[in-house]
């Protein structure tokens, strides 16, 4: 992807991600505050909700593609891997290192934003499939 396209696309990706992250954090907070799940498990649930929101927004706005079945399953694989990484990182930070759950989630979100952008732009929504 040319550099002149990458930055604006990343900004759109981050903006769409902010909407998905709002859904993610709402589910996370509700499950933790209701004492229904531990922060790492609640975060994984929230991540899956956020992923659904992100797929729809990114397909149409960021990558300007139709939400095809191929893109959907690729996004799903990426989202499941990210949700698992999210849960593992949250467990390490909150249980292992005793970082407060909200601070831990902010750190994990920042890391996964960059990683999932790279995967989704190069694989899920690539414009010139081989």
UniProtKB/TrEMBL annotation:
InterPro entries: GtrA_CellWall_Glycosyl, GtrA_DPMS_TM. It is found in: Membrane. It is a multi-pass membrane protein. The chain crosses the membrane at residues 12-35, 41-59, 71-93, 99-120. Residues 13-125 form the GtrA/DPMS transmembrane domain. Keywords: Membrane, Transmembrane, Transmembrane helix. The keyword Chaperone does not apply. The keyword Transmembrane helix applies. Its main location: membrane. It comes from the Bacteria. Belongs to the GtrA family. This is GtrA family protein.
């Amino acid at each position: 992807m040319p550099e002149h396209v990458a930055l604006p696309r990343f900004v759109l990706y981050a903006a769409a991600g902010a909407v998905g992250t709002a859904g993610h954090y709402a589910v996370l907070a509700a499950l933790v505050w209701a004492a229904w799940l531990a922060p790492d498990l609640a975060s994984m649930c929230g991540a899956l909700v956020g992923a659904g929101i992100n797929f729809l927004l990114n397909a149409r706005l960021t990558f300007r593609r139709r939400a095809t079945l191929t893109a959907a399953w690729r996004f799903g694989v990426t989202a499941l891997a990210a949700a698992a990484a999210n849960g593992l990182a949250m467990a390490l930070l909150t249980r292992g290192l005793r970082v407060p759950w909200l601070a831990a989630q902010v750190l994990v979100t920042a890391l996964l934003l960059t990683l999932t952008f790279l995967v989704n732009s190069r694989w899920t929504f690539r414009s010139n499939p081989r």
